[in-house]
Amino acid sequence: xxxxxxxGFTTIDWLILAGYFILxxxxxxxxxxxxxSTDEYFRAGGNIPMWAAAISFLATSLSAATFIGGPQQxxxxxxxxxxSNIGSILAIIxxxxxxxxxxxxxxxxxxxxxxGRRYGIPANLAASGAFLIGRVFASxxxxxxxxxxxxxxxxxxxxxxxxxxxxxxxxxxxxxxxxAGGIRSVIWTDVIQxxxxxxxxxxxxxxxxxxxxxxxxxILDTLKSGGADASSKLTIFNFGLDGFSPKxxxxxxxxxxxxxxxxxxxxxxxxxxxxxxxxxxxxLKGSWSAVTGILVGLPVTALFMCIGLLLYIFYSRPELxxxxxxxxxxxxxxxxxxxxxxxEMPAGLTGLMMAGLFAAGLSSxxxxxNAMSSSxxxxxxxxxxxxxxxxxxxxxxxxxxxxxxxxxxxxxVFSVFWQKAHPEATLIxxxxxxxxxxxxGLSAVFLTALFTKRGSNASVIAALLTGFGxxxxxxxxxxxxxxxxxxxxxxxxxxxxxxxxxxKKDEEKIANDERRIAKDEKMKSEERRVKNNAVSFRRKxxxxx
Length: 545
Known about the structure:
The model is unreliable at 1-7 (pLDDT under 50).
């Protein structure tokens, strides 16, 4: 950037931002008094209203990647990212009809408990471990994105050392907030934060329309005539021949085959997303909260994309802006929306916009570390320490929040360098592509468990490793030839095939072998005990017999 950002942030903006964080702290403290068990801490006792769970589901699915990356995506390209919602809708219908009812019927604390009931403990632990690794990737990347505006506000640039400091601040804030209130505080604060960042986006939209000196019909004609490559920036669905190329990310084919599986992994197999769906009073309400959250999310995502189109007019078409054209240049597209916020918005609105951005970023961070701690305690710790009190489990749950918060912060720092090595990728592409690593295997395993009678502990573990390993291979050697939605489709297909190899007969044979071995050991132990007693009896003096 040619100008420093910091002068655009006034005292009133700092006060508004400080007020937002104070609101978070106060709400966390108030909700802390209600925590008495891990069920309350992770499921809110199953008493969350459907509409609140839906909004929280929406807030978690959007994140800072949408707030910053959505405008960047439309500014650099067009609206084809919206076509990926075809996959989201297909996925949420399947999740609502098949996944959520099963989770409620089995009364699982985490969705991986279902795999434990279906296959056994090893499958449960393996899937939960895959989630933990995948969530570190996904939420760590989102934390990195949320730290970009923090770095700009505090230091006026996004130098690496400043990004790392900003990541540290956000990590500490997120840990202390979740440490206090658990999932109940996460959900209700998501409601507040959603109102804040959606309100901020609407404000930006209105302000942009007022600042651009041409009417909406002329704006639409300009966007339709296209950008630098002469293609229309209003394009949503790519039906062209290039849509069949595996290099293209956002096409109708990738929406149906790639993004549907990616969304299935996010909405149905990721404890971070499904956890709030398990806080409702019934499976029906949990399913409706999921569908509602996704449907409401469609216009919200479109809103951020439209902001990007208006930013294209504002910054890239000076002949249309005339004397209203900005007197500075934005070099990096990932700073495009932040530039407008910090340069063009009046005092007070800048602080509101930044509060909205941090609301989107912290919403993802808060829910992620709560869900990861939930998985650690319910899937691992309770299984090996089943004789402890609820008070003890609650302490371990809060310790897990701290540990996973720090781990996410570390991966966010790693993401600074990872994304720097791939500057051509937009923030949304970066945030979505890292999700493929874990979701490919998890989606395959859950589809096998729900819709077939195949699979075993061994094949579940092998499928998870196949999904993760194949994505690493494609990401390392074919990242420019195979777009990440196709990587998801290929990796999930391979993992699904591997998971089908296992069968119930295999599990029964293993179980029978284990029972036979245990029986043999018991018989041998009994024989040794009888033999030892006989020897001891013979050795006793006659007077003591």
